[in-house]
Amino acid sequence: MMLLCICFSWSIFWTALTAIGTLAMAFVSYKTLCKNDNQVKEMKRQWEEDHRPYIDIVLIDSNANYTTDSRSIFIENYGKGIANNVNIHFDDSFIDGIPCDDLKDYLHKLQTKSYRIIYGRNQSVPFCNILNDSRTNYRINTKVFDYNKKNELIEYLKNPITATVRYSWNGRTYEEIFLLKYNKD
Question: 84 near 50, Cβ under 8 Å?
Fold first, then answer.
């Protein structure tokens, strides 16, 4: 008969128990760090949303004494960040349908311009100034056109205008689409 002797050592037991506890603590710590990383990412996203610029554009009547029918694009930054490289692009079909070539050229040039709008500030950009030369002649910049063309242009500009605004802040680029309407009563 053979005797089996199982020697029980308390030191081995406590060492094994400590090793299991250490592995459990390491697992819990890893999971906690993952949750903290997600919380930091969410806080950063919320901070950026709270501090970024928000651009709004509207088409406004900007008549002065010498103009008969003028419009401006009013660009406003109501966010907390500075909007850099603000560009306005109009729908190509809108520009192609304009019955005045000088206005088409002007709007193409306007699309290449870039603006910087500080938070809480605004900028007014001329959109269409129709000047009254006489009772029958009107002009946009230097091109003269007759009264019938003026009425045709005014009617055309009453159509909704799709404008895309792109701007950058903090290394990110934002793009928003606006529907501009102008109805002079």
Answer: no
73 burial via Cβ count (<10 Å: 0-12, 13-18, 19+) = buried
Q: Which amino acid is at 164?
A: T
Note whether 53 and 169 are within 8 A (CB): yes
Please name every residue paired with 73 in a beta bridge, in sequence order, or none if there are none.
59, 125
Using DSSP bridges, classify how beta strands 83-90 and 161-169 pair: parallel, antiparallel or unpaired: antiparallel
Decide if 77 contacts 45 (C-beta within 8 A). no
Give, in order, the Cα–Cα distances in Å from 29 to each of 11, 23, 35, 87. Answer: 27, 10, 10, 48
Beta bridge partners of 83: 117
Encode pLDDT of 125-173 as tens digits: 888 776 655 555 555 554 556 666 777 877 888 888 999 999 999 999 9
Q: Nearest-CA neighbor of 69 among 78, 57, 77, 60?
A: 60
Contact, 182 vs 61, CB < 8 A? yes
